[in-house]
Amino acid sequence: MANEYKVLKIDELVRPGEVGGIERYSRVTFKTKKGVVATVDIEAVDLTPEKAAPILLARAKEIDGIMTL
Questions:
Q1: Half-sphere exposure (Cβ direction) of 45: Cα atoms closer than 13 Å
Q2: Nearest of 12, 11, 5 to residue 61 by alpha carbon
Q3: How many Å apart are CA 62 and CA 30, to the nearest integer?
Q4: What does pLDDT average to over the chain?
Q5: What SS3 class is residue 39?
Q6: What per-residue string of b and e applies to 36-62 under the rule 16 or more CB within 10 Å gives b?
Q7: How far is it, in rounded angstroms, from Cα 51 to Cα 27?
Q8: Is the pLDDT of residue 56 over 90?
Q9: Mean pLDDT value across residues 8-16
């Protein structure tokens, strides 16, 4: 898994919620195996190694797959 992407930066952000209140999320910037830098937004409650890793892995594979077209 670690070979597919490398996390470069994590920014914690806040935005207005759809039904009031606020939503907290993190914007994770990562670099894929083929050198593409991308970001993905993950809800703050899901920013754990167990939950974030599959999200980042799937996105990295998707991006690198597009690069082979």
A1: 1
A2: 5
A3: 13
A4: 92
A5: strand
A6: eebebebeeeebeeeebeeebeebbee
A7: 14
A8: yes
A9: 95
